[in-house]
Amino acid sequence: MTxxxxxxxxxxxxxxxxxxxxLPWALREQVRYDLDARDVAADQSAHLHTDIPxxxxxxxxxxxxxVYVRTDSPAPVxxxxxxxxxxxxLLARYPEHLRPALTAADxxxxxxxxxxxxxxxxxxxxxxxxxxxxxxxxxGLGVRYLTLTHNDNVDWxxxxxxxxxxxxxxxxxxxxxxxxxxxxMLVDLSHxxxxxxxxxxxxxxxxxxxxHSSARAVCDHPRNIPDDVLExxxxxxxxxxxxxxxxxxxxxxxxxxxxxDENMRAHGFHHLDTTAEAMKVHRAFEERHPRxxxxxxxxxxxxxxxxxxxxxxxxxxxxxxxxxAFTPDGLNDVSGYPNLVAELLDRGWSKADLTKVTWxxxxxxxxxxxxxxxxxxxxxxxxxxxxxxxxxxxx
Amino acid sequence: MADLQHDLSRTAxxxxxxxxxxxxxxxxxxxxxxxxxxxxxxxxPLTRAHAILxxxxxxxxxxxLPWALRRLSYYDxxLGESTVDTDVPRLRxxxxxxxxxxxxxxxxxxxxxAVGATxxxxxxxxxxxxxxxxxxxxxxxxxxxxxxRNCGRVAVLLGPAGAPALGDSLGILRQLHLLGLRALTLTGxxxxxxxxxxxxxxxxxxxxxxxxVIADLSxxxxQTLRRALSLSRAPxxxxxxxxxxxxxxxxxxSDDLLAELGAAKGLCLVPLSAEQTxxxxxxxxxxxxxxxxxxxxxxxxLSGTYDSGSAHPQELQDTSCYPRLIAELLRRGWEExxxxxxxxxxxxxxxxSADFTARAAQQRREPSTATISELDG
Lengths: 395, 377
Known about the structure:
The complex is a heterodimer of chains A (395) and B (377).
Chain A: H1 3-13, E1 16-21, H2 23-31, H3 52-57, E2 60-66, H4 76-93, E3 98-100, H5 104-113, E4 116-123, H6 132-140, E5 143-147, H7 171-183, E6 186-188, H8 194-203, E7 208-210, H9 227-230, H10 233-236, E8 239-242, H11 246-249, H12 251-266, H13 276-288, H14 296-310, E9 315-317, H15 337-346, H16 351-379, H17 387-391
Parallel strand pairs in A: 1-2, 2-4, 3-4, 4-5, 5-6, 6-7, 7-8, 8-9
Helix pairs in contact in A: 1-15, 2-4, 5-16, 6-7, 7-16, 14-15
Chain B: H1 2-6, H2 45-55, E1 58-63, H3 65-68, H4 88-93, E2 96-103, H5 111-130, E3 136-138, H6 142-150, E4 154-162, H7 170-178, E5 183-185, E6 192-193, E7 196-197, H8 199-211, E8 214-216, H9 222-231, E9 237-238, H10 255-263, E10 267-271, H11 274-277, H12 281-295, E11 300-303, H13 322-331, H14 336-364, H15 372-376
Parallel strand pairs in B: 1-2, 2-4, 3-4, 4-5, 5-8, 9-10, 10-11
Antiparallel strand pairs in B: 6-7
Helix pairs in contact in B: 2-13, 7-8, 8-14, 12-13
């Protein structure tokens, strides 16, 4: 049996529980939620990284669908509700493939039924508009993790990719974490500054997750996790779900992206500009400087290191498909996970350990968060703290 | 309430019309012909009022208790809370069986702040109800209202919220409905204005029908009200409107509109608000007499407006005062059956019709993907 066959066998029993997929955003941007125009029960490889046939081929058994909205959205709460509606429409449309999941028990039920457990995660504190009532509303609608920030700071937490302002979490930020603990919503520390990671670990009484982040020691990018934080995961019980985004995982790609962005700015464009003129400049750059390509092995290097730093009980997978323009060779879309498992088998990872990485750890953290929530709900009422009361200078 | 939070998987039954045949229990449905009196005509009117209300409690169309409690860090609704007009002892004293909790927004909120503030209001309402689960029970359907009553709880229904809560999006309407929203007031937005409903506004009404969210048209323009009456497959509500023929007030309804509302079997809920009805119990009774005459006994109900900041008529200062109002109606010769319709029966019919319409619509309509930019340009 080849290692790829062995990987597929393993995934049949313990499929991938992936931490982050941006299909809802792609559907919003490409077709304004017209699900007829992107029937994901059929092959959509011309438009998307994700469709049901490829999820099946990739051995995916649970997916946190991201209900991400842009940080500069004029109406982030409204847009988040529309993203949640999109996930619900997908679930209503493909019930034989996608199973609504709110709990660890739902994830296991989906695995028994051979359906893909579908959970939701909100990507960025801007989705709650500084309001714990809104946070509870999102929980009520089924959101099971909140990434504390996206690429920009929020009023109560610093992002990894913005100028430090709060120095981690503010008092209100810590209250957000406590309220998430009380609800049973996972605290997601992808995208946040290392200072925020440490403050959240100090505050949270439930396991945290990194829904899509890799190791900073392997590739020095602020979106990745420093070793001192990885080393705290065993005590916390949380998991770091390795991501595949080339510009975070491959040093040559990090450097290339920095140079390409600099080139854009030198030509008077914003580095994320995708207008025709901007793309022309970008393509010219790419012709002169071929884009470095990450591979399955690049991602496996991260997992090797993360296992050293955090231990095999604290790993997972968060591909960020449809949330990134480029993907590694061999992990081009959601059908690629078996290649990663095969690579790890070749590197001597045991099957027992790999079932933790693909499935068991992700189920465990949600189950643990539910346990913590049950305990807290017996002793704490819903918090009615406001950002004004906790973070204003005189407060 | 768990089902409100956990019905992520609810999908319309796909197999034909079997689901529609499910019987709706007759409990709570009142008609003049089948009505059996529960009071002794020789008793004093107030004694009779208590007897009738014990059998047919008040379904109060507007109460703003959660909003009134927002600044209180401590309150006890079970024992009684004198800083507000509503608590369990007075609800019981007034024979209140169901309450709509208004989620109206402070003036001037729009866009994302209206959406966020509505989520907060829904959250606050649920928190208040849960702190008082011996007395109150959150409900979403007519059946759940009847269950709550059978368990000795006051049924709480969430809404109406203001139309800006929708953020001009049907997807958001669906999420608010999942969080328990049961009624929406169609005013204060571009798609429901003085000019009536736009194409998007019409689609909102159709989607509300599909979900079972009741349209509240108090404060809406006559054009909006008329369009909603002809468009909506479920009866609509004017949640806090009295008779303009008796007292001019912008939210009160003209006789023409009352007659049209009656013909469509909609419901006019008369507010116990001095500004809209006048300062005495007799004034309120005058409105009820008039609306019953113009729209019909099946089309009138009560809306306490307690804790919403309104000044109330004398002797109707809090939620315990309903028996006084009912006694006045009995003095005026109201039949018991009409009183039972006024207090309980009509709202039950409205809820049942909304539930039924929703179930029927879900058989033939997919969730609408229309957007305001697509329909209104």
